[in-house]
Design goal:
- Keywords: Membrane, Transmembrane, Transmembrane helix.
- With 357 residues, this protein is mainly α.
- The protein contains eleven helices and no strands.
- It has a domain of 163 residues.
- Helix 5 runs antiparallel to helix 6.
- The longest helix has 43 residues.
Length: 357
């Protein structure tokens, strides 16, 4: 089975190597053009005293320098710019320094494909081919233009993923991908050294797993291990109260809560089923709200430090409860009275006289 990823990697890197070679050839040919132009200009300046017809020409003979004011300057500047561009493209092809390109020249960075590179190569090659040059420079420029067309085509096919597919580092990282990449991030819980020593010492002396050994493991601040002891807590009894008192905690007993309204006593009824209303006040039921004396000693956490204040609170609570009871009885009595009056008014009065015929 053909590995498509390997074919893409080798094909893109082959084009990459040819592109680097073409840029090096163009760089060398540009240096040769500069040397040739300088020699031609020197020869032209030396022969100015000759035939005027030879002096009146568009280009200096044997060079790419135009015969005009500052023609030599612009010809040299053009060659230097071509050399500078080839150096930048060479650094882009060798992927160094990519952080510089990603920040200051993004079209040659990792986020763009090979299309921009092909366009720059085409501009350089057409600039060289637009002049009359020697055979070496001509071949180098044609070679660079061919690679420019290939890079533009690859940029259209692979787009921004072309540089990633030809990257050697990405290829090596993918080759290592056969190994498991996931790592268990859960914490590793290991028994403390005291537990291990106690188990193995008991196993050597009396036989391992032959009897139940009480294990006492203390939390170690340097590790994340926890365990319990033979007495995990003291509960809610006397032992827990003592332990809390020794540690400085005070256990307070919650205050007693009373019902907001007491259930009213049923009103007496007569023989015919009607409620009977009495003018006398109903019997008052006395409710004892005092709390039995606690059997806890003064050292207990339930001990009240101010008995007089507690007694005053109990009296106020009893008074409030008595007022609520009295108000509730009055309301109940008024409702029963109004109900009995309405029932008496609706009952028809029978006459003791015989009916007249």
């Amino acid at each position: 089975m053909v590995n498509t990823r390997a074919i893409q990697f080798m094909g893109l890197n082959a084009v990459r190597v040819l592109s680097i070679i073409s840029l090096l050839l163009v760089f060398a040919s540009t240096i040769l053009v500069i040397v040739t132009n300088v020699k031609a200009v020197n020869a032209f300046e030396a022969s100015k005293t000759g035939d005027p017809a030879e002096m009146d020409c568009d280009y200096i003979e044997g060079s790419t320098v135009p015969n005009q004011p500052a023609g030599v300057f612009w010809a040299i500047v053009s060659s230097l710019l071509i050399m500078f561009q080839t150096i930048i493209l060479l650094f882009s092809e060798v992927s160094w320094p990519m952080k510089f390109f990603d920040r200051f020249f993004p079209v040659l960075g990792t986020q763009f494909g090979l299309g921009a590179l092909g366009i720059f190569q085409a501009l350089i090659s057409t600039q060289i081919l637009s002049h009359h040059v020697d055979d070496f420079t001509l071949v180098a420029a044609f070679f660079l233009f061919a690679l420019a067309c290939i890079n533009m085509l690859l940029g259209l096919i692979f787009r921004e993923s072309a540089k990633e597919k030809r990257s050697i580092r990405a290829w090596r990282a993918e080759a290592k991908g056969v190994l498991p990449t996931s790592v268990d991030q859960r914490p590793q819980f290991v028994g403390s050294q005291s537990y291990v020593n106690s188990v193995f010492s008991q196993g050597d002396n009396k036989g391992m797993w032959t009897e139940k050994v009480p294990v006492t493991i203390v939390r170690n601040d340097s590790t994340a291990t926890w365990s319990s002891t033979d007495k995990a807590g003291f509960g809610f009894g006397r032992q827990g109260e003592k332990a809390a008192g020794l540690r400085g905690f005070i256990l307070q007993r919650p205050e007693e809560s009373l019902p907001r309204y007491a259930s009213p006593s049923p009103a007496p009824t007569s023989g015919n089923g009607h409620h009977v209303a009495f003018a006398a006040q109903p019997t008052t039921t006395h409710v004892s709200l005092s709390r039995a004396a606690s059997s806890v000693t003064s050292t207990s956490s339930f001990y009240s430090p101010n008995p007089e204040e507690e007694e005053q609170i109990e009296r106020e609570r009893a008074a409030r409860y008595a007022r609520r009871e009295r108000r509730h009885r009055d309301e109940s009595y008024s409702r029963e009275s109004s109900r009995s009056r309405s029932e008496r008014s609706e009952t028809p009065i029978k006459s003791s006289r015989p009916a007249a015929f």
